[in-house]
Records
---
Amino acid sequence: MELVVPSLKYKESFLEALKEYQQESSKPHNWDLLVLDRVDLNKNFSSYIKKLVDESQGKNLPNGFVSHTTYWLIDKEEFIGRIDIRHRLTEKLLQEGGHIGYDIRPSKRNQGYGKKILELALAKAKALGLTEVLVTCDETNIASKKIIEANGGVYKNKVDLGNERPKKLRYWFSLF
């Protein structure tokens, strides 16, 4: 099991995972892939990979985004999940989002992959030069809370974002 940079090699497995995410309507996701058209992505997968590489270099970022590096968790040549490591924080990311966002494809949840992807991401964040990392999750997301705490996240506080949204739990990791 390893974190890899996005690659054409995992296209079919990635597209299968995308289908799972899009069929799962009971849970909200913050992953922008949910709005991508699988047919279009199938035709233009190399453009999607280039977009991710560009964003890791701070190029062609959508408005309000910061540079971020995306990695895919691969197990036995299968796409399991993705993780984004933001290179810096904005005021908004300090409240929600943090440095690291991750997701495991629906069919692979509750199998230990969430804990592993965050563990591996913390090492990648350190390699990117980050010394402290913020990870947030919804107060109602018990699985993510357990993943963060199992990896040594130190609880800082809870943020109320209003608008009947779940409160955000904020955890810090020291990567010295």
Note: The chain has one domain: 2-174.
---
Amino acid sequence: MIGLGPLIGAVPRPSTTLQALRDATHDAHETLEQQLDLLSTGFSKARLLRMLVRFESFHRAWEPRIESLIDRSAFLAPRRRLAPLQADLAALGAAPECSQGPDLSWLVGASDAWGSLYVMEGSTLGGLVITKSLSAQAWRPRAEVTYFNSRGRQTGAFWRETTAAIEAHGCIGNRDQMIAAAIKTFETLAGWLAPDPDAP
């Protein structure tokens, strides 16, 4: 049959936007996890403080940018994580840095924002594991690091609501732009949180 030849052996396109995002960002996700090494038994308090300071400056730039691109204030308000970060720094005796944060000029539309939100909201799932790991460190933080566990028992519910919104936006046909922004978010985080002199 004419025209069917190129389809033989072709890789099927993921059926959902969420699956497409997972597949496309796998390598970038793995690279960032290895760089941060948050589950290492030798993770030091000094590294944690430096990382939280950098996360704080990232969120200080990122949250307003996302809110300017996604006109859903009621949806985004409970997903803000800047306040928990600043509370963590105060509890741990560290001060925010003066940096204005990373260059986010590539976040220009709603699809970019949803793709980036996929990464940052997805990190709350891993945050549950990170919280448990930190509590097992020999120097165990005297105060809970709430940034990694800012949703508590509601983490799963928040994530399901987020993925439903992502799927709804992806159906409009903006999947490729969302994927590109998600990958760029991982890469921006990797660049912003590095270098770390104590990293393995």
Note: The radius of gyration is 18 Å.
---
Amino acid sequence: MKTRDAALHDQLVTTDFRTGTRGFACVTDPECAVCVKPGTEIAFDAPIQFYNPDSIVTIVSGKYTAAVFGQVNKANKMAHHDCLEFPDGSHILLTRLIPGQSAKILQLPATPKTEAEANDQKRVEYAG
């Protein structure tokens, strides 16, 4: 599968990939997964919609149109890590996002100044 790093002002769409996971794709090339670094700010065209964490059939329309890309479950290599962090501190895994939502990269994370900051921005790869 084609991949590339996210760039400032990229136009993205939430996508189901043939690998069985969900994430961001380039609007102009839906077969290209866009790799987003933790700390990247993302704005959606409408309130972010996702499947309820307790039910994969119930769709929730959130109250936020912006979020910060992050990662959770970093110690568990067999878990999904990519998530959106909301202003209230809550988060939702990217695997829960409803496909077809439009988004734009608002701001990339700052260049790390220390090794600890660089480690925080390093993506954990799914091992499943």
Note: The first strand starts at residue 2 and ends at 5.
